[in-house]
Design brief:
Layout lengths: L6 E9 L5 H9 L17 E7 L2 E7 L9 H13 L5 E7 L8 H8 L6 E6 L9 H6 L9 E5 L7 H11 L17 H16 L9 E9 L5 E9 L2 H8 L4 H18 L3 E9 L7 H6 L6
Parallel strand pairs: 1-3, 1-4, 4-5, 5-6, 8-9
Antiparallel strand pairs: 2-3, 7-8
Helix pairs in contact: 6-8
């Protein structure tokens, strides 16, 4: 009996901050790999997620939001975006219809160059507008013909996400299985745990504090009772940020720890015992050496 050919390829998700890229990655792979929050610039690293199908493997790359870099950290983040555009089979450019989306064609042309990579324009959050408003929105884009496909969708509700996946599959060439079937991401548990802790910082702390926080898991050990012991340090840039993060009588850091511990336990499928410490590392976002020590040395 003739065997059907196997298809595989890399699919890069890009777009402005906070348009739903990480939510889409999680929807594709069926598990939470990338943290999400209402705050912009939640994603700082390139997050890889693997979708395995009987005759295909799709490797999705979630990326930080496209922005003008002003610090060493933001330059690292934009480097993660540009490196994810080096050799994908498909690019998904996502915008948010509630923000009058207009794709950055200069950015796309600059980083894709003359390569014939199919680019899909994803208009997310169409559940917030009437159906008859979608086509005029697409027509308002002067260069919509640049895209191989235009997909209105609602990642939150799942509208059109299966159709998008099917269309991406049609674009993938025959190729090998790049990752084992039991490997959903190339990130290790320490990275994912640190991100779950930072997610709670984003939800609990005030506007100016979360973007000054870096999280490092310093110790992780299995316990005799089947649980896991975790020590993590939250680095901030100023003493005032540390006071806010700790909170009155330690209430803020206690809330962050409790909610992060619950999320970590769900991910690891075992009890998590979490200890958090807050330290000041002045201007860490501006110093390349500090970034490397805090885990930003590799995109």
């Amino acid at each position: 009996m003739e065997t059907k050919p196997f298809h595989s390829g890399f699919v890069t998700i890009i777009g402005e901050p906070n348009v739903g890229k990480s939510t889409l990655l999680n929807a594709f792979v069926g598990t939470k790999l990338a943290i999400v929050s209402p705050k912009p610039q939640t994603t700082r690293h390139r997050i890889l997620g693997v979708k395995n199908l009987p005759q295909a493997q799709l490797v999705f790359l979630d990326t930080p939001g496209i922005h003008q870099p002003r610090t060493e950290l933001s330059r690292y983040m934009m480097q993660a975006v540009t490196e994810a555009l080096e050799s994908p089979e498909v690019v998904l450019y996502m915008t948010d219809v509630t923000r009058e989306p207009q794709p950055d064609f200069d950015f796309l042309r600059r980083h894709l160059g003359a390569r014939q990579v199919p680019v899909f324009w994803l208009l997310n959050k169409i559940d917030t507008m009437a159906a008859h408003e979608v086509l005029p929105l697409i027509a308002s884009c002067d260069d919509a013909a640049f895209f191989a496909e235009v997909f209105p969708l609602s990642v939150h509700r799942g509208d059109n996400v299966p159709d998008l996946l099917e269309r991406i599959l049609e674009m993938l060439p025959e190729g090998p299985r790049y990752f084992p079937e039991d490997m959903p991401t190339d990130r290790d548990e320490r990275f994912l745990i640190a991100e779950l802790i930072r997610e709670q910082v984003l939800y609990q702390a005030r506007e100016e504090v979360p973007h000054a926080v870096a999280v490092v898991v310093e110790m992780m050990e299995e316990r005799a009772d089947g649980g896991v012991e975790i020590d993590a340090c939250l680095y901030v840039e100023r003493d005032s940020q540390k006071r806010i993060l700790v909170g009155k009588q330690g209430q803020m850091i206690k809330t962050i720890g409790t909610r992060a511990r619950q999320a970590i336990g769900r991910m690891l499928h075992c009890p998590a015992h979490l200890r958090l410490l807050v330290r000041v590392n002045k201007r860490w976002k501006q110093r390349e050496a500090a970034l490397r020590r805090l885990g930003f040395g590799d995109t």
